[in-house]
From TrEMBL:
Origin: domain of life: Bacteria
Provenance organism: Thermopolyspora flexuosa
KW NADP (keyword) present: no
Cited Pfam families: MMR_HSR1, YchF-GTPase_C
Protein name: Ribosome-binding ATPase YchF
Similarity comment: family membership: Belongs to the TRAFAC class OBG-HflX-like GTPase superfamily. OBG GTPase family. YchF/OLA1 subfamily.
Amino acid sequence: SLSIGIVGLPNVGKSTLFNALTKSGNALAANYPFATIEPNVGIVGVPDPRLQKLAEIFGSARIVPAKVEFVDIAGLVRGASEGQGRGNKFLANIRETDAICQVIRVFSDPDVTHVDGEVSPERDIETINTELILADLQTLDKALPRLQKEARFNKERKVVLDAAEAAVKILDSGTTLYSAGKQGAINLDDLRELHLLTAKPFLYVFNLDTDELADTELRARLSALVAPAEAVFLDAKLESELVELPEDEAMELLQSVGQEESGLAQLARVGFETLGLQTFLTAGPKEARAWTIRKGATAPEAAGVIHSDFQRGFIKAEVISFDDLVEAGSVAAVRAAGKARIEGKDYVMQDGDVVEFRFNV
Ligand code: GDP
């Protein structure tokens, strides 16, 4: 499954956040009895109020949300791209993830020293991105002579060469390829074979003091630093306390600091979105469940997420939109109203489809 690598400078709250993710994952793990969770992986459920509603309609015994996996990637220091610290290990680990989550310190506790002497989100983002950009420039530097040779007699290779040369210019200007891609300045598909770090989707977690959480002006300023990438605002210390509390007490604590939802919940939602994923829903007496698929997945591919046999023997899918189901109140009522659709193997799944697959075994 897809994972998001957590990176950041020392003392920004990565471990604190990661411990909260791990605790939250342990609670979820009961839903995935056969999954082994590695010690450097933290899992968080993607909150989805539709599951509660489905469980009511179907009388489901439990709810299984979609999940997002975060991997703790230690060892980022200035000079990592030149092998400083555990720089090479760091770059190898980050290459294996599907998106990059940067934790940026905003909290100002004088008892926690900052590696560069003072707290500056802007400079920290630049420090991290510079290391990733330098690593990509090294990769491109190595690849370019080969690409130039290949492009001489081959138009398709010329496309890749052109993209690589454009990438060098973008990186030289201090911009990540992900940002440039989002702004339409480069087609990242042409660079896929090079596995460049800054071409991965980015998201940013700003670790704030509790009293900064409701500061909309500050949040807008920080968002602007990282746009078009997404930003999540949380207090890692508060998150580590929230995961220890029963749900109602956690909610009370959140509301007392002006928040409606935990930072982990927001991180899960934004992470899921950043990875380009979506869900479809199934429900029955046993469970109401959200399953993860890539945007654009077809009905047989979706069936394959539940079981490979479902994909192999796929015949058709009965699809009901969540809203129709809630309005009608039951599957039987949706069918009677003629709103249950039978879809074939070319159907592209839509967010919020409630599905039952028919298949040969
Ligand atoms: P890491 O080096 O990035 O993994 O940072 P840690 O999670 O170990 O945090 C470093 C120190 O900062 C620890 O003493 C934490 O308790 C403290 N810390 C982490 N997050 C926060 C926060 O949101 N607010 C405050 N005041 N302290 C924090």
